[in-house]
Amino acid sequence: MFEFATAGRIIFGRGTLKELAPAAVTFGKRAIVVTGKSTERAEPVLELLRKAGVEARTFSISGEPNISAIQDGVAKAREFGAGFVIGFGGGSAIDAAKAIAALLTNPGDIFDYLEVIGKAQPLKNTPLPCIAIPTTAGTGAEVTRNAVLLSPEHRVKVSLRHPMMLPRLAIVDPALTDSLSPAVTASTGLDALTQLIEPYASARANPLTDSICLGGMKRARSLRRAYANDPAAREDMCVASLFGGMALANAGLGAVHGFAAPIGGMFDAPHGAVCAALLPHAMEINLRALRQRGPAEIKGRFEDVARILTDHPQARAEEGIAWVTDLCRDLQIPGLRTYGITEAHADQLCDKASVSSSMKANPVVLTKEELRELLMRAL
Q1: DSSP characters for 229-260?
Q2: What are the sequence ranges of the domains in the chain?
Q3: Which candidate in 57, 192, 248, 281 could, as Cys together with 241 as Cys, close a disulfide (CB 3.0–4.6 Å)?
Q4: Is 197 exposed, middle or buried (0-12, 13-18, 19+ CB in 10 A)?
Q5: Alpha helix stretches (DSSP H) within the chain
Q6: DSSP letter (8 states) at residue 66
Q7: What's the half-sphere exposure (Cβ side, CA atoms, 13 Å) at 334?
Q8: Would you identify the CATH topology of the domain 10-176?
Q9: Do 164 and 7 touch, CB atoms closer than 8 A?
């Protein structure tokens, strides 16, 4: 038995941003548009809404969305009388939009619904409609059922999660990623690759997510060309990101994201770059642990990953790990020391990672020694 859920409707392709206008009018007359730090990039969205007769206000999220910012966004949206929410930007803006849409219709405090540091209660009411428009190719947040939020007080990132939080509409226009810098293209692209490899090797994998992950990994081979700003490769990476979001929402993640949540809570470190630094080491340590004590059917999945990434039908798992290692080197991914992480933080990070929601889907339970080794290698 397995279950699969995704956004209510997905529109993909260059130039599809224009589809926002006819869709928006079906959701209401007033919209809160949640953006990243710069609201200027959302001007094309605002213009489309104006032409459609939809009144809009922007709400900016600077950096990772934290709990107080979400509460502020809810208050502003409620004061404005918003009938729906649009997330336009990277994963932070889209996650913030999903959280605001959910909290606008549900009573009580945000901590009633947060995982790990809250009560993790299910939503009682359907969120306001949410439209997700990604401008990066990495998080797949446009098709996930959770919002990752930073709690500075607890120094951790946690999720507000419920199936009803899936956006009603996702518009994925690869043209919106053309202006990404090489560094952002690299880190977000490796996040997308991680979100295809981890669900494929997940303890919760199913036949549908398997197909999505394998197809997404083929597309993710284009990352080097996207790094060089090849438009066709950028389209491939948008597909890879979309597929990764679908996969993780239905099959879970693993050790990379298990560490990424506490690291993101304790340090000013870009999520995608953290995942990239951890990925090849997590693959190697998981493979070793699986060979020692893991289910036989999952061991072979790292061989599948290698064959897809190297495009060689006889590739061994180690060749796939080498491919990812070389990719991280070629895309100039820095180690975690860049963000101030040292050996002194290892125990705290390993303790937090071991109880994170993402770690629950890792294909094998890693020992504290293995977790520490993974982190040390990524420094």
Answers
A1: T-HHHHHHHHHHHHHHHHHHHHH---HHHHHH
A2: 10-176, 180-378
A3: 192
A4: buried
A5: 20-24, 43-51, 67-80, 91-103, 182-200, 207-220, 223-227, 231-251, 255-266, 271-293, 296-310, 317-330, 346-354, 368-378
A6: B
A7: 11
A8: Rossmann fold (3.40.50)
A9: no
pLDDT at 296: 77
C-alpha to C-alpha distance for 38 and 167, rounded to whole angstroms: 22
Domain covering 180-378, topology: Dehydroquinate synthase-like, alpha domain (1.20.1090)
Largest CA distance in the chain: 62
Token pair for 281 = 């080491």
Quote the tokens at residue 33: 């548009």
Q: Which two tokens stand for residue 140?
A: 């797949």
Judge contact between 11 and 169, C-beta under 8 A: yes
Smallest Cα–Cα separation from 253: which of 371, 373, 114, 363?
363
Q: How does DSSP classify residue 4?
A: -
Contact predicate 349/264, CB 8 Å? no
Residue 48: CB partners within 8 Å, gap ≥ 6? 17, 18, 20, 21, 24
pTM metric for this prediction: 0.96
**pLDDT value of residue 145:** 96
Residue 287, token pair as written in the block: 């493979």
d(CA 275, CA 220): 15
How would DSSP label each residue in 130-195?
EEEEESSSS--GGG-SEEEEEETTTTEEEEEE-GGGS-SEEEE-GGGGTT--HHHHHHHHHHHHHH
Average pLDDT in the chain: 96
Q: Which of 163, 303, 193 is nearest to 256 (CA)?
A: 193
Confidence bin at 182 (pLDDT 50/70/90): very high
Distances (CA, A) of 220 to 55, 192, 230, 365, 379: 38, 8, 13, 27, 25
pLDDT digits (tens, 9 = 90+) for 215-229: 999 999 999 999 999
Whole-number Å distance between alpha carbons of 307 and 319:
8
| 100 neighbors 77 (Cβ within 8 angstroms) | yes
